[in-house]
Protein backbone atom coordinates (compact mmCIF):
# COMPACT_ATOMS: atom_id res chain seq x y z
CA UNK A 1 0.00 0.00 0.00
CA UNK A 2 1.19 3.53 -0.68
CA UNK A 3 -0.04 7.00 0.23
CA UNK A 4 0.93 10.34 1.76
CA UNK A 5 1.03 10.50 4.62
CA UNK A 6 1.89 6.81 5.10
CA UNK A 7 -1.42 5.00 5.69
CA UNK A 8 -2.19 2.81 8.66
CA UNK A 9 -3.51 -0.69 8.02
CA UNK A 10 -6.26 -2.52 9.89
CA UNK A 11 -7.17 -6.16 9.33
CA UNK A 12 -10.79 -7.19 9.84
CA UNK A 13 -12.37 -10.64 10.00
CA UNK A 14 -16.10 -10.59 9.27
CA UNK A 15 -16.09 -6.86 10.15
CA UNK A 16 -14.24 -7.25 13.48
CA UNK A 17 -10.60 -6.21 14.02
CA UNK A 18 -8.01 -8.99 14.08
CA UNK A 19 -5.91 -8.48 17.19
CA UNK A 20 -2.29 -9.63 17.35
CA UNK A 21 -1.74 -12.71 19.52
CA UNK A 22 0.27 -15.94 19.47
CA UNK A 23 -1.38 -17.15 16.26
CA UNK A 24 -1.92 -13.79 14.47
CA UNK A 25 0.92 -11.44 13.57
CA UNK A 26 0.93 -8.26 11.46
CA UNK A 27 4.19 -7.77 9.58
CA UNK A 28 5.51 -4.80 7.54
CA UNK A 29 8.53 -5.03 5.25
CA UNK A 30 10.83 -2.13 4.45
CA UNK A 31 9.43 -2.17 0.92
CA UNK A 32 5.98 -1.34 2.32
CA UNK A 33 4.51 -4.82 1.89
CA UNK A 34 2.08 -5.65 4.73
CA UNK A 35 1.28 -9.24 5.77
CA UNK A 36 -1.14 -10.94 8.11
CA UNK A 37 0.47 -14.19 9.29
CA UNK A 38 -1.80 -16.84 10.83
CA UNK A 39 -0.01 -19.84 12.34
CA UNK A 40 -1.42 -22.28 13.25
CA UNK A 41 -4.58 -21.96 11.20
CA UNK A 42 -7.88 -23.14 12.71
CA UNK A 43 -11.50 -23.34 11.60
CA UNK A 44 -12.15 -20.11 13.55
CA UNK A 45 -9.96 -18.24 11.07
CA UNK A 46 -12.32 -18.90 8.16
CA UNK A 47 -14.37 -15.95 6.85
CA UNK A 48 -14.16 -12.65 4.99
CA UNK A 49 -10.97 -10.66 5.56
CA UNK A 50 -10.82 -6.95 4.86
CA UNK A 51 -7.62 -4.93 4.70
CA UNK A 52 -8.39 -1.26 5.44
CA UNK A 53 -5.78 1.42 4.70
CA UNK A 54 -6.42 4.90 6.21
CA UNK A 55 -4.67 8.29 6.32
CA UNK A 56 -5.80 11.92 6.70
CA UNK A 57 -6.78 12.16 3.07
CA UNK A 58 -8.97 9.11 2.90
CA UNK A 59 -9.11 5.32 2.98
CA UNK A 60 -9.12 2.31 0.71
CA UNK A 61 -9.74 -1.38 1.23
CA UNK A 62 -10.05 -4.80 -0.35
CA UNK A 63 -11.65 -8.01 0.84
CA UNK A 64 -11.06 -11.72 0.30
CA UNK A 65 -12.59 -14.97 1.42
CA UNK A 66 -10.52 -17.48 3.37
CA UNK A 67 -11.81 -21.06 3.46
CA UNK A 68 -10.24 -23.41 5.98
CA UNK A 69 -10.53 -27.07 4.95
CA UNK A 70 -10.19 -29.91 7.41
CA UNK A 71 -6.68 -31.28 7.59
CA UNK A 72 -6.35 -34.71 6.03
CA UNK A 73 -5.59 -37.23 8.71
CA UNK A 74 -2.56 -39.27 7.76
CA UNK A 75 -1.69 -42.51 9.51
CA UNK A 76 1.08 -44.88 8.54
CA UNK A 77 -0.05 -48.39 7.57
CA UNK A 78 -0.46 -50.82 10.47
CA UNK A 79 -1.09 -54.56 10.48
CA UNK A 80 -4.16 -55.74 12.37
CA UNK A 81 -3.49 -59.32 11.21
CA UNK A 82 -0.18 -60.42 9.73
CA UNK A 83 0.58 -63.15 7.21
CA UNK A 84 0.82 -66.61 8.75
CA UNK A 85 3.13 -69.48 7.81
CA UNK A 86 1.16 -72.22 6.10
CA UNK A 87 1.45 -75.36 4.00
CA UNK A 88 -0.89 -77.09 1.56
CA UNK A 89 -0.74 -80.20 -0.62
CA UNK A 90 0.28 -79.67 -4.21
CA UNK A 91 -2.69 -78.98 -6.46
CA UNK A 92 -4.78 -77.33 -3.75
CA UNK A 93 -5.63 -73.59 -3.59
CA UNK A 94 -3.93 -71.45 -0.95
CA UNK A 95 -4.72 -68.00 0.45
CA UNK A 96 -2.11 -65.73 1.99
CA UNK A 97 -4.21 -63.29 4.01
CA UNK A 98 -3.75 -60.30 6.30
CA UNK A 99 -5.46 -57.07 7.33
CA UNK A 100 -3.88 -53.61 7.07
CA UNK A 101 -5.21 -50.14 7.90
CA UNK A 102 -3.82 -46.70 7.10
CA UNK A 103 -4.81 -43.21 5.93
CA UNK A 104 -4.80 -42.58 3.06
CA UNK A 105 -5.51 -46.21 2.11
CA UNK A 106 -2.16 -47.87 1.39
CA UNK A 107 -0.93 -49.40 -1.83
CA UNK A 108 0.13 -53.05 -1.61
CA UNK A 109 3.14 -54.82 -3.07
CA UNK A 110 3.65 -58.61 -3.05
CA UNK A 111 7.05 -60.28 -3.29
CA UNK A 112 8.18 -63.90 -3.40
CA UNK A 113 11.74 -64.51 -2.25
CA UNK A 114 12.39 -60.74 -2.62
CA UNK A 115 11.16 -60.65 -6.24
CA UNK A 116 8.07 -58.59 -7.08
CA UNK A 117 5.04 -60.67 -8.09
CA UNK A 118 3.36 -59.15 -11.16
CA UNK A 119 -0.39 -58.68 -10.93
CA UNK A 120 -0.98 -60.85 -14.01
CA UNK A 121 1.12 -63.83 -12.91
CA UNK A 122 -0.33 -67.20 -13.88
CA UNK A 123 -2.44 -68.88 -11.16
CA UNK A 124 -1.95 -65.92 -8.80
CA UNK A 125 -4.49 -63.18 -8.13
CA UNK A 126 -4.43 -60.30 -5.65
CA UNK A 127 -7.52 -59.13 -3.79
CA UNK A 128 -8.37 -56.41 -1.26
CA UNK A 129 -11.44 -54.63 0.13
CA UNK A 130 -12.34 -51.43 1.97
CA UNK A 131 -11.95 -53.05 5.40
CA UNK A 132 -8.20 -53.53 4.92
CA UNK A 133 -8.41 -57.24 4.00
CA UNK A 134 -5.61 -58.23 1.60
CA UNK A 135 -5.24 -61.63 -0.03
CA UNK A 136 -2.93 -63.38 -2.47
CA UNK A 137 -4.74 -66.37 -3.98
CA UNK A 138 -2.72 -69.16 -5.62
CA UNK A 139 -4.85 -71.69 -7.46
CA UNK A 140 -3.74 -74.40 -7.84
CA UNK A 141 -0.52 -74.41 -5.84
CA UNK A 142 2.60 -76.04 -7.31
CA UNK A 143 5.91 -77.07 -5.78
CA UNK A 144 7.58 -74.01 -7.33
CA UNK A 145 5.27 -71.75 -5.30
CA UNK A 146 6.96 -72.72 -2.04
CA UNK A 147 9.02 -69.92 -0.52
CA UNK A 148 8.94 -66.70 1.49
CA UNK A 149 6.16 -64.22 0.68
CA UNK A 150 6.30 -60.56 1.71
CA UNK A 151 3.49 -58.01 1.67
CA UNK A 152 4.40 -54.32 1.85
CA UNK A 153 1.80 -51.61 2.51
CA UNK A 154 2.78 -48.02 1.66
CA UNK A 155 1.10 -44.61 1.84
CA UNK A 156 2.24 -41.00 2.28
CA UNK A 157 2.77 -41.49 6.02
CA UNK A 158 4.97 -44.60 5.92
CA UNK A 159 5.50 -48.21 4.92
CA UNK A 160 5.27 -51.56 6.74
CA UNK A 161 6.00 -55.14 5.68
CA UNK A 162 5.42 -58.68 6.93
CA UNK A 163 6.75 -62.03 5.70
CA UNK A 164 5.52 -65.62 5.94
CA UNK A 165 6.60 -69.04 4.67
CA UNK A 166 4.54 -71.14 2.26
CA UNK A 167 5.30 -74.86 2.02
CA UNK A 168 3.86 -77.13 -0.67
CA UNK A 169 3.54 -80.81 0.23
CA UNK A 170 3.56 -83.68 -2.25
CA UNK A 171 0.28 -85.59 -2.39
CA UNK A 172 0.55 -89.17 -1.14
CA UNK A 173 -2.00 -91.37 -2.91
CA UNK A 174 -3.00 -94.50 -0.96
CA UNK A 175 -2.56 -97.54 -3.15
CA UNK A 176 -5.28 -100.18 -2.78
CA UNK A 177 -3.77 -103.68 -3.11
CA UNK A 178 -5.13 -105.81 -5.88
CA UNK A 179 -7.14 -108.89 -4.77
CA UNK A 180 -5.07 -112.07 -4.68
CA UNK A 181 -6.13 -114.66 -7.22
CA UNK A 182 -5.79 -118.24 -6.02
CA UNK A 183 -4.72 -120.94 -8.42
CA UNK A 184 -7.10 -123.91 -8.42
CA UNK A 185 -5.76 -126.92 -6.61
CA UNK A 186 -2.96 -125.07 -4.84
CA UNK A 187 -2.57 -124.66 -1.11
CA UNK A 188 -3.11 -121.32 0.66
CA UNK A 189 0.60 -120.89 1.34
CA UNK A 190 1.53 -121.87 -2.21
CA UNK A 191 -0.83 -119.29 -3.68
CA UNK A 192 0.49 -116.52 -1.41
CA UNK A 193 4.10 -117.24 -2.24
CA UNK A 194 3.13 -117.39 -5.86
CA UNK A 195 2.04 -113.76 -5.57
CA UNK A 196 5.45 -112.83 -4.21
CA UNK A 197 4.34 -112.84 -0.55
CA UNK A 198 6.14 -114.67 2.22
CA UNK A 199 3.94 -115.14 5.27
CA UNK A 200 6.68 -116.38 7.60
CA UNK A 201 8.58 -113.07 8.08
CA UNK A 202 5.28 -111.44 8.99
CA UNK A 203 4.77 -113.70 12.02
CA UNK A 204 7.80 -114.28 14.31
CA UNK A 205 8.27 -117.96 15.11
CA UNK A 206 8.55 -117.17 18.82
CA UNK A 207 4.91 -116.12 18.92
CA UNK A 208 3.55 -119.16 17.08
CA UNK A 209 6.07 -122.00 17.52
CA UNK A 210 3.50 -124.68 16.80
CA UNK A 211 2.49 -123.29 13.41
CA UNK A 212 5.72 -121.87 12.04
CA UNK A 213 8.51 -123.87 13.59
CA UNK A 214 9.95 -124.76 10.22
CA UNK A 215 9.33 -123.67 6.61
CA UNK A 216 9.07 -127.32 5.69
CA UNK A 217 6.28 -127.95 8.21
CA UNK A 218 2.89 -128.59 6.66
CA UNK A 219 0.43 -125.76 7.28
CA UNK A 220 -3.16 -126.74 7.92
CA UNK A 221 -5.55 -124.51 6.02
CA UNK A 222 -8.49 -123.02 7.89
CA UNK A 223 -11.94 -122.98 6.39
CA UNK A 224 -12.34 -119.39 7.53
CA UNK A 225 -9.48 -118.27 5.28
Descriptive overview:
By secondary structure, the chain is mostly beta strands. Helices cover 3% and strands 43% of the residues. Among the domains are: 8-66, Sandwich (Immunoglobulin-like); 75-169, Sandwich (Immunoglobulin-like). Mean pLDDT is 82; it is low at 196-219. The strands form four sheets. It has a five-stranded mixed β-sheet, with no helix packed on it. Strands 2-1-5-6 form a four-stranded antiparallel β-sheet, with no helix packed on it. A four-stranded antiparallel β-sheet has the order 7-9-13-12, with no helix packed on it. The longest helix has 7 residues, at 188-194. It comes from Buceros rhinoceros silvestris. InterPro entries: Ig-like_dom (IPR007110), Ig-like_dom_sf (IPR036179), Ig-like_fold (IPR013783), Ig_I-set (IPR013098), Ig_sub (IPR003599), Ig_sub2 (IPR003598). This is Myopalladin.
In short, what is this structure?
With 225 residues, the protein is mainly beta. The chain contains one helix and 15 strands, in the order βββββββββββββββα.
CATH architecture of the domain at 75-169: Sandwich
Biggest sheet architecture:
5 strands, mixed
CATH superfamily of the domain at 75-169: Immunoglobulins
Residue fraction in strands? 35-45%
Overall SS class: mainly beta
Question: Spatial order of the strands in the main sheet?
Answer: 8-15-14-10-11
Q: What is the CATH topology of the domain at 75-169?
A: Immunoglobulin-like
Question: What is the number of helices?
Answer: 1
The share of residues in helices is under 10%
Amino acid sequence: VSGLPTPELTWLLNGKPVLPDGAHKMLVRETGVHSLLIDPLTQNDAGTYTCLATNRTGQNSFSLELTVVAKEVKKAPMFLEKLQNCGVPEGYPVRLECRVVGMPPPIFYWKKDNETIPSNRERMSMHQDTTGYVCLLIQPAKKADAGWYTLSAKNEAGIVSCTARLDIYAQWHRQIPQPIKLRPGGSWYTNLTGQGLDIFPAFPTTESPMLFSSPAQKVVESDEL
